[in-house]
Write a structure and sequence with these properties.
Distance between the termini of chain B: 63 Å
Number of strands of chain B: 0
CATH topology of the largest domain in chain A: Arc Repressor Mutant, subunit A
Strand content of chain A: under 5%
Mean pLDDT of chain B: 92
CATH architecture of the largest domain in chain A: Orthogonal Bundle
Oligomer: heterodimer
Helix content of chain A: 55-70%
Number of helices of chain B: 4
Helix content of chain B: over 70%
Structural class of chain B: mainly alpha
Structural class of chain A: mainly alpha
Radius of gyration of chain A: 20 Å
Largest interface: A-B, 50 and 38 residues
């Protein structure tokens, strides 16, 4: 049996943590959890009691997360990262001159220990288009398995590696400009 | 056999998660012998991975729902039951 009066007490924290590890935005995560509860209420007659209440709610939440990913990946929400390599012509695949890595100060190894690094890095990640930030965080910060991310977001692994590659190239450049060469 | 810089750095990124295949790594290493820019990228990529690891530690449990937020949520659900 479902017990909606107790959903918030029993499941809100769990659902919220599940969401925030995928979508690093407090208000958005909260809204998705709220939407999940509402959708659960609407569909409560479909609950057959085969899975636990929590598992059932998570399955609804998973759809919400895919819908969100689709939205940020749609033509409308599609912000692309700055290109680092030529995408056509004779020089296709070569570095674009102004995006070529510059060597960093010798002290860079040490400056990793600086606490402000995380603040600058967080800004760089937040500057990525949403889709890139989401996949990058899931893979690198949350350390999900490739297979799991692909399944959850319904993308292929070659898709995932292109996204990771573009995110990392962009982040390298951002950290070079704002941290390592300052 | 020959990689572009775009392809080489993508393999380089993949290998930061230990997920590049043997052949990919072989092709990457050949490319790195000849390409200074990608060599630098590869070296810096190790540093970037360390930064991400440090960032991961500090991210920790930054977010949680506060009591007020849950109260509002509960109220809205009860209105719909």
């Amino acid at each position: 049996m479902l017990n909606p009066e107790k959903w918030v007490t029993l499941h809100a924290d769990y659902l919220f943590n599940y969401t925030i590890s995928r979508i690093n935005n407090h208000d958005l995560a909260k809204d998705l959890v709220q939407d999940t509860f509402f959708a659960g209420l609407k569909a409560k007659d479909n609950f057959q009691g085969k899975a636990s209440e929590r598992t059932w709610l998570i399955s609804i939440l998973k759809r919400k997360i895919i819908d969100h990913y689709r939205k940020i990946n749609s033509a409308k929400g599609k912000a692309e990262v700055k290109m680092n390599f030529y995408t056509d012509g004779e020089r296709e695949g070569e570095w674009i001159e102004e995006r070529v890595p510059n060597s960093w100060d010798n002290a860079f190894e040490k400056s990793i220990e600086n606490d402000e690094l995380s603040v600058v890095l967080e800004q760089c990640i937040n500057n990525l288009p949403e889709k890139y930030a989401m996949v990058f965080r899931m893979k690198t910060i949350q350390q999900f398995e490739t297979e799991e991310i692909c399944k959850e977001l319904e993308i292929t692994s070659s898709n995932l590696w292109v996204i990771i590659h573009r995110a990392r190239t962009q982040l390298r450049k951002c950290m070079e400009d704002n941290w390592f060469r300052n | 056999m020959k990689l572009t810089c775009d392809e080489a750095t993508q393999i380089c990124d993949k290998s930061q998660y230990s997920e590049a295949t043997f052949w990919e790594k072989l092709k990457l290493n050949l490319h790195l012998l000849l390409c200074k820019n990608c060599g630098l990228y590869s070296k810096q990529n190790n540093v970037m991975t360390k930064c991400y690891e440090k960032h991961k530690k500090e991210e920790g449990n930054k977010h949680c729902l506060c009591a007020d937020e849950k109260e509002v949520m509960e109220k809205q659900i009860k209105e719909k039951i």
